[in-house]
Amino acid sequence: MSLSFQALLLSTMLVATWSKPQGPAYLPPSASPSAPRPQHGHPDEWAGDPVNYEFSYEVQDAMAGLDFGHREMRKDDEATGSYHVLLPDGRTQFVDYVADEGGYRPIIRYEGTASYPGPSPSGGAEGYKYRKK
Questions:
Q1: CB within 8 A of 57, min separation 6: which ones?
Q2: Phi/psi zone of residue 98: left (φ > 0), alpha (ψ -120 to 50 degrees), beta?
Q3: What are the boundaries of the region Disordered (predicted)?
Q4: What are φ and ψ of residue 11, in 5° steps?
């Protein structure tokens, strides 16, 4: 096989490879979808499946001064949950909530006593300082 024929064969193979779609093809929607979708409403309503879930997480890092978390459960059209966060003033904020057709209804409470930095020797308030790592 001659060198020019090999080069021609290689270039033809490369062109053929590059011209084929690589990966999934993103095409416009077809004219006749299998299941008609409404033109209004939320996509969750289109599926017709109930929207039920539950999740939670907690973060506690004493060195960084972090303490927060969130828990939520949803059954059909009602979500209930709570979250908490350690505030810079030393208190912890707790929020219990319900979210449904009536909207988001939180109940907020605080635990602990707020403490603020004292004035600096220069007379001005220094405020909160971030810890450098």
A1: 69, 70
A2: beta
A3: 25-48, 112-133
A4: -65, -35
Structure tokens at 36: 């008609």
Q: For every residue of the chain, which 3-state class applies, written as one string?
A: CCHHHHHHHHHHHHHHHHHCCCCCCCCCCCCCCCCCCCCCCCHHHHHCCCCCEEEEEEEEECCCCEEEEEEEEEECCEEEEEEEEECCCCCEEEEEEEEECCEEEEEEEEECCCCCCCECCCCCECCCCCCCC
Q: If you average pLDDT over residues 94-114, what whole number do you get?
A: 95
Q: How far is Cα 110 from Cα 92, in angstroms, rounded to an integer?
A: 6
pLDDT score at 104: 94
Neighbours of 20 (CB within 10 A): 6
